[in-house]
Amino acid sequence: MAHARTTPFAMPLSEALGHVDRVFGIDSILADEGRDILKPYYLQSEPGYKRVHSQKGCMHMALNPDGVYTADGYLTQIRDVAYQIRQVQASRVLELGSGMGFNTIALAPDHAHVHFTGLDLMAHHVRTAQKDAAHLKNAAFRQGSYTDIPADLRGADVVFGLETLCYAEDLDAVAAQIAAAMAPGGRFVMYDGFRRADFDAAPENVQIAARLFEVTTAVTGGFHTIEAWDAALSRAGLVVLRRDDLTDQSIAGMRYLHNRAAKFFRSWKYRALKHVMPKYLIRNAVAGLVGPYMIEGAGPKSGDTRAAITYSVLMAEKPR
Ligand SMILES: C[S@@+](CC[C@H](N)C(=O)[O-])C[C@H]1O[C@@H](n2cnc3c(N)ncnc32)[C@H](O)[C@@H]1O
Q1: pLDDT value of position 34
Q2: What global pTM score does this model have?
Q3: Which atom of ligand 1 has the smallest separation from the CA of 95?
Q4: Which atom in ligand 1 lies closest to the alpha carbon of residue 60?
Q5: Is the distance from the beta carbon of residue 81 to the nearest atom of ligand 1 less than 6 Å?
Q6: CATH of the domain at 35
């Protein structure tokens, strides 16, 4: 359960959707559903991620098990990856969608005998990661896609991806790439947002909040269900060992971003930034505002807590 000290919602869902509609137009945002906006989104968003989200270049959600947001929550997923590295006594680790390098740069110093490679689609992310990792002998970053993992990166003992595989389109093809990149006995870990299997049963406004979040984080095809990933990994020959819903741990971080975004929507000075800042960068404020409703439902006072999205982990092993 969410801890009592968790920051409260800044406003009811209906008010939040009203703000989004007035400032950006809900229909105009949702018109991007199904469109490939990944590159402009990340090109425009990098300064925002660094200024608002994490100066160290973290681009994933914090997981705070005690219900209070702290930046330490960005390390929760990394601690799990470190555990897998120890479990299989890894010598090679491959991070998919490594972004600005936060995870691999956090892991490499503690695992001097492990070689880490980060693979990311965006050349500008790779350059940032390479610059920040210049002091590390055991970490390298490359530009490339997990839809076509370079053959020389195969044989990794641990392959992991944090909030990146939501962008995959053909799950079977990507799962086959992941399986091919893993050494026998190797582990695969993914943390991500997932549409609940009963997404369509969530209240309409909660579904709209989820779709707004998806589009304004460039997941324009919608989050996948964890069942779809589980099935694709199994078809690729992996054995799924763990599938856990960690939504509760993501509430504090989501509400923290929500309250920051609420300031933007409530102040004309901040809203004026919309006219001078790039579209995809400024639309991150929408994701911040609506995030909690999609994972918690319309909010405690609405009387309806049916949600649309989970934050979950999936872990699988490649049989020997
Ligand atoms: C939300 S960010 C997460 C970055 C990083 N995993 C982290 O935790 O900070 C998603 C990342 O996935 C990358 N990405 C999206 N599609 C990709 C693909 N097909 N192959 C490799 N990287 C991809 C994006 O460029 C972006 O850096």
Answers
A1: 98
A2: 0.96
A3: 6
A4: 8
A5: no
A6: 3.40.50.150
